[in-house]
């Protein structure tokens, strides 16, 4: 019985700090979202040539948000290590998954640029390094 | 609330869950992991197609409307949607927290707010879809030009409506689950059981919906 009472007292003590952590997490998520939106709305449109740099920043900020949601809101950080590992380790497959498939898409673009060139040059004669999709629209002259 | 566990406990010795969680909660985690792969496959196929395209529509141009205020407001409406979803995630944690204290009224209050947040998000999405449809966008139809001014393929709208639709369907299921949880709480089911673990499981699902939105938001509205 003493044990139960002690546990109850501990829970009461933890209650306030738990609510504090919830709101702190909320402010972190809101802050990161506001940074993303500021970049997306006001900064990135003026520096389109650095779009890939902004995309890298978005990826990092998104992963930070995902970490806070999973760790604090879904409480995974406070579970035992066995459970954390059984959830997180399979998700590492995404690392291969993303690299492999994006490389595949990029390679497809390169292949079309190389082998569809005659059609493509007809579509857009002035810039023949970047474009590939023009091949789909023969007859478009500008 | 960190689990206080003696360091030398033999988790695999039998007689207790080696993961120190209840069976249903563990299975919810595994379901969400599989669902993460489903969403991941969707988003990665979107990425593959986008990487294989020479250009793509500009999100700042496509998503620039707000109800009543009109056009020329890039990303403002989706900011509102994101805020609503984060907020409803907070009210969900607060419901789970009230459940830890067996506070029935608290659980009901926060679940009700979470449901309101979910419905608000769905309404926003309904408006956005309607608006895009009015502009001529749908599966198989894409009125928006590429960033470089060329005519875009329908890949953009196909992926947008499929993935946000799949996410919206998750939000919808989450709202239904939350409504059922609210009714069960009201009827005192969890008080009779002596614990509010079901609220935690519904909460895991709801946070997952928020988690997916974080990625959908980045992939469609920021990239």
Write the layout of secondary structure elements.
The complex is a heterodimer of chains A (142) and B (223).
Chain A: H1 2-43, H2 51-73, H3 81-91, H4 93-115, H5 117-123
Helix pairs in contact in A: 1-2
Chain B: H1 23-51, H2 59-62, H3 76-100, H4 104-134, H5 155-186, H6 189-193, H7 197-222
Supply the helix-strand structural class of chain B.
Answer: mainly alpha
Please summarize the sheet with the most strands of chain B.
Answer: none
**CATH fold-type name of chain B:** Four Helix Bundle (Hemerythrin (Met), subunit A)
- Quaternary structure of the protein: heterodimer
- Principal-axis shape of chain B: elongated
How many helices of chain B in DSSP terms?
7
* Shape category of chain A: flat
Helix content of chain B: 55-70%
What is the residue-averaged pLDDT of chain A?
81
Largest sheet composition of chain A: none
Identify the notable features of this structure and list them briefly.
heterodimer; A: 142 residues; mainly alpha; 5 helices; 0% strand; flat; B: 223 residues; Four Helix Bundle (Hemerythrin (Met), subunit A); elongated
What does this structure look like?
With 142 residues, chain A is mainly alpha-helical. Helices cover 75% and strands 0% of the residues of chain A. Chain A contains 5 helices and no strands. Chain A has helices spanning 2-43, 51-73, 81-91, 93-115, 117-123. In chain A, helix 1 (2-43) packs antiparallel against helix 2. Chain A starts with a helix and ends in a 19-residue tail after the last helix. Chain B has 223 residues and is an all-alpha fold. Chain B has a single domain (35-222), classed as Up-down Bundle (Four Helix Bundle (Hemerythrin (Met), subunit A)), CATH 1.20.120. Helix content of chain B is 68%, strand content 0%. Chain B is built from 7 helices and no strands. Chain B has helices at 23-51, 59-62, 76-100, 104-134, 155-186, 189-193, 197-222. In chain B, helix 1 runs parallel beside helix 7 and helix 3 runs antiparallel to helix 4. Chain B is elongated and about 65 Å long. Chain B starts with 22 loop residues before the first helix and ends with a helix. The interface between A and B is large, with 62 and 62 residues.
